[in-house]
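The authors assume throughout that readers already know how a fold can be written as discrete tokens. What matters is that the chain and its backbone geometry are given together, residue for residue. A single example would do more here than another paragraph of explanation. For illustration, here is how one protein appears when written out as sequence plus structure tokens.
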Amino acid sequence: MQGRASVPADSGRPGAAGTPVPPLDPGLVQRFGLIFSRCPYGFDQPAVYHQAGFMHLNSQTMGALLENGYRRNGNHMYTMHCPGCRGCVSIRLDPAQFRPNRNQKRVWRKNQDIVVQPGPLLMSREHLSLLDKFLRIRFHNQDSQAESYYSQFFLTTISPCFELRYWADGVLVGVAIVDATPEWLNAVYFYFDPDQGWRSPGTFNILNLVHFCRQHGIPKLYLGYCIEGLLAMAYKKAFRPHELLLQGQWRRIA
């Protein structure tokens, strides 16, 4: 087990002032309750989810929740209210302002053989086989099944959702599941072939999401949480400039 998470420290230059987050509608907030569980990121303290289930959310409400740091899990929206821990910090990009560093340019070049195919969510044999392999190798200590991920998480969507399939030589090597409107894109989940780790698939996926947003004029790209001390999420901070949601304000890190 890991120790307690902390707010991400960042060696970049913070912006002069943060952008305050508009408050949520009180009627919407009343729908949420607290769910207690073990920490999904392996820290040795209980997790507390501020969570609510929905049948459908319009793009304006979904956008407001994302701006307030909420994440989507199936037909639920949640944020973390863990006592004594502020480790789950939301991170987002302005795709138009992003400038790749040397390593990100290298990752983009070495993945030029990848064919990207947008499309509706599928639960094909190829998808399930790839996700099973990903879960078995990346999360070998958890009893996770690909079919349950799709039936309980991916396919129970409450907002406009689709996937980006990554193919190499006709073989499915990655799938990015995203929510999107003309105002924002939300990275929901990404899984890939662990044997393709040499491609830096997590970095390539975000680069491709930035590319997609630029193509479609989408001004906000939400990347989920950036958690200090969690190596699997550290690569997100390399995308600059980015914004972190700290104390109710989106603060720009150059």
